[in-house]
Structures are given as C-alpha cells and as structure tokens.
C-alpha cells in the first residue's frame, strides 16, 4: 500500500485508533473496508432486484389454438378442454373466432349465414379485423397467467381465403403482428368423413369440394408449433391426446417462454 493510499485510508479511522502504531492502524483500516464491502454485498442494487422480479413475472398463460376442417370436432374438444383445465384449478378462458359479439363479428355472422354478400377480399379483411379487435385483450390475459383455448384463429382465415383463390401471401399480410400461438392442434379428418357428420352444410363454407381445397391450404401452413391429432378417433381418445400436448405447452409457458408474433417479416 502506498503512503498516499494509506493516508487516505487512515483518514476514515477515528483519531483514537489512528494514534496507534502504523501496522495496527493499517489492519483496522483494512478490516473497516472489508466490513463495508461485506455490508454492500448483502444488499442487491435496486436495478438487479427489478430485473429478477421481471424474470419471475414472465410466467404466463398459453395461447392454444384448435384448427381443422368444418365438423372436425374443434368446438366440442375446445369445450371439453376448457372444462378439464378449469376443474384442475387453472386460470383458463375459452375463445372463438370469429367473435360474433363485436360489431365486425356481427357483419361476419350475417355473411356466414348467407344473409349478405361481400367481396372475398373484403370478408377476409373483416375476419382479420375481428382478430385484431381482441389482440390487446389477448396479450393482457396471457401475461396475467390466463391460458386461452381458441377455436379457430389466423390459420383458418388464410386457409379458407386462399382456398377461394386469393394469394396466400396477401392473405397472411393482415395477420402479421397478431400473437403467434404457443400450440396449434390440428384435428385431422378427411373432407369426406367430415361431410358425414351431423349438421354439415348449414353454413356457407360447408361444401365438400371447397373443404378439400381448405385442407390443402392448411397443409401448406403447418410449422413447428403444430401438433396433428387424428379426429376420427373416439371423442375420449382425442380428448386424452389433446390434454397431453396442451399440458406440456402450458408448463413451457409457465417457465417464461416469451410471446411472439405471427409470420414476422
């Protein structure tokens, strides 16, 4: 230790101690500095505490989307999954697109029931707008820890519109920036098998040839977030497989998987 450093150090030592022999004074000064450092290390900087709190709060709900052809069983399985998770004590909500309770949703509902006519481009943009209406609320729910079970999402919009002949990239464009699902469960069934199920043909898009085109469009949209389940299995078997993949996804999101956006440029 230099004379300057020693003098500076000793200036912080009480006069009664500084009058002791130099070696003893040096030892006391070093002990004092060590104690000061130890004291500081016991208390974490406020910035570090904030960062740790931020990390612990990154736990969130999962965005689970069920997709598939008309009459594949999405609505039934969404309801069963919601009931199961709710009974297990999870914070969960069941959503469906189009959401026919909004202003845009009511226009879509009229169109689907064949009560109004719209250009294919116009109805596609309405479907997209319907999802954007709920985008902020969706993010808020997920960040608060609520898992969302969603019956149809952007993939349906793109698959159905591109099946009409619209350019698939044009169909994707209005969806860019919406939240990307953590898991897409595709309930796989052939158009022919789906057409055999009760109630088929009640809405505009429930036509066999058209559904074949939709199936082809869905195939081109699959990515790593998709899990395919055979929808021709019994209701109970489909439900069991669905629970397995959903619970795994929920665990990942609880550990802090970050939210992402659809089809980033």
UniProtKB/TrEMBL annotation:
Gene3D superfamilies: P-loop containing nucleotide triphosphate hydrolases (3.40.50.300). InterPro entries: P-loop_NTPase, Thymidylate_kin-like_dom, Thymidylate_kin_CS, Thymidylate_kinase. Its EC number is 2.7.4.9. It comes from the Eukaryota. PROSITE patterns: THYMIDYLATE_KINASE. Residues 66-241 form the Thymidylate kinase-like domain. Pathway: Pyrimidine metabolism; dTTP biosynthesis. NCBIfam families: DTMP_kinase. This is dTMP kinase. It comes from Solanum pennellii. The gene is LOC107024339.
């Amino acid at each position: 230790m230099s004379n300057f450093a020693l003098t500076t150090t000793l200036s912080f030592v009480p006069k009664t101690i500084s009058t002791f022999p130099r070696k003893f004074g040096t030892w006391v000064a070093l002990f004092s500095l060590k104690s000061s450092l130890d004291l500081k290390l016991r208390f974490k900087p406020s910035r570090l505490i904030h960062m740790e709190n931020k990390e612990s709060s990154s736990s969130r709900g999962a965005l689970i989307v069920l997709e598939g052809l008309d009459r594949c069983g999405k609505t039934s399985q969404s309801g069963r999954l919601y009931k199961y998770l709710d009974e297990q004590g999870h914070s969960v909500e069941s959503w469906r697109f189009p959401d026919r309770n909004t202003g845009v949703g009511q226009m879509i509902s009229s169109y689907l029931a064949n009560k109004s006519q719209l250009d294919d481009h116009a109805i596609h943009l309405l479907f997209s707008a319907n999802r954007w209406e709920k985008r902020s609320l969706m993010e808020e729910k997920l960040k608060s820890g609520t898992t969302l079970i969603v019956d149809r999402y952007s993939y349906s919009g793109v698959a159905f519109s591109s099946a009409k002949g619209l350019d698939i990239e044009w169909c994707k464009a209005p969806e860019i920036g919406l939240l990307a699902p953590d898991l897409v469960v595709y309930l796989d069934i052939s158009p022919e098998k789906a057409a055999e199920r009760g109630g088929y043909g009640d809405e505009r898009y429930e036509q066999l040839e058209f559904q074949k085109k939709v199936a082809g469009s869905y195939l081109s949209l699959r990515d790593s977030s998709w899990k395919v389940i055979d929808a021709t299995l019994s209701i109970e078997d489909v439900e069991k497989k669905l629970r397995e993949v959903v619970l795994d996804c929920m665990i990942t999101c609880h550990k802090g998987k970050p939210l992402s956006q659809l089809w980033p440029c």
